[in-house]
Request: fold
Amino acid sequence: MTTTRRAFGALATGVAGAALAALVPAQTASAAARQRPERHRPGRLIARDDFRHGLGQWATELQDGGSVTASRGVLEIDVPSGATVWFKRKLRGPYVLEYTATPVSEGGVNDRVSDLNNFWNATDVRSPEDIFATHRGGALDEYDHLTTYYAGYGANTNTTTRLRRYVGEAGVRPLVFDYTEPLLTANEPNRVRIVSNGSTVQWWNNGRLVFDFVDQDPYTSGHFAFRTVWSHFRITDFRVRELRQRP
Reply:
């Protein structure tokens, strides 16, 4: 499939325009990987969950119910509409976050194969000291008041893969990158790696650099979440490590 990649420049006015004043040049993911070699290595373990002891480290926001469980090494999200599953601990960069997510297609009512999405370095401008002090019910527009990065991999019924940079304004979700591939494959694992390293923002999948963004006004701390819509995922091996400069 031919890759469509569009890098959108700064908006003309407002906070969103200032935030997106400079984007990395449009290029393929493989080219980005060659041009920006890894200069850091994972260091001390900051956080992890083996998903054997319930949801104690997580907070769920469900639009229309569904099931979110953590047992026997798997975080399972099986939902009929919007769902956000927050890691309760606030993270501060530089860090690398990793997990494996498999979209389930076994004939279940929610087995749609769509929307492997993430928020990270998220803060709610209405309660900046505590993201959980503001109620949200799982519908996507309820997250417009976040300042955050948002990756949507295989979204819109597995037709788009996008990076957005939310700026905390209702109805404003600036689009940074927009692809028509790569997309999800049913029952195939996605080994995701998120790099938060100052102005460097990266989202990898199965060793491929999908999003490579240089943010001149970066979000360097905040909360991480799994986000999906009408889908069924099994997630394993969640861990976060600090990044160290290579010698």
Notes: Residues 29-35 form the longest helix (7 residues). The CA atoms of residues 115 and 228 lie 5 Å apart.
